[in-house]
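Let's sit down with a protein and look at its sequence and fold side by side. Please make up or recall a protein chain and show it to me in full. Label the sequence line and the structure token line clearly, so we can match residues to local backbone shapes. Go ahead whenever you are ready, and we will take it from there.
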Amino acid sequence: MVNYYLAEQIAKDRLNEAREMATQARLLGNSTPEPLRVVLGLALIRAGRYLAGHAAKGSAHPRRATA
């Protein structure tokens, strides 16, 4: 028999611990820089969205590929 209250409390405790660890890591500056491929990829995505302009953002009828 599953005790849902206990499972919820354990999940909340683990989430709070993870948040505390993230806060401490951020304060200590232990974050590693993202690899160049990630930075470059995100920049290309942003550039593509910028070049696509308004037409790509607010399409009333999205195009869907059908097979």
Observations:
- Residues 4-28 form the longest helix (25 residues).
- The two ends are 46 Å apart (CA to CA).
- The CA atoms of residues 25 and 51 lie 37 Å apart.
- DSSP finds three helices and no strands in the chain.
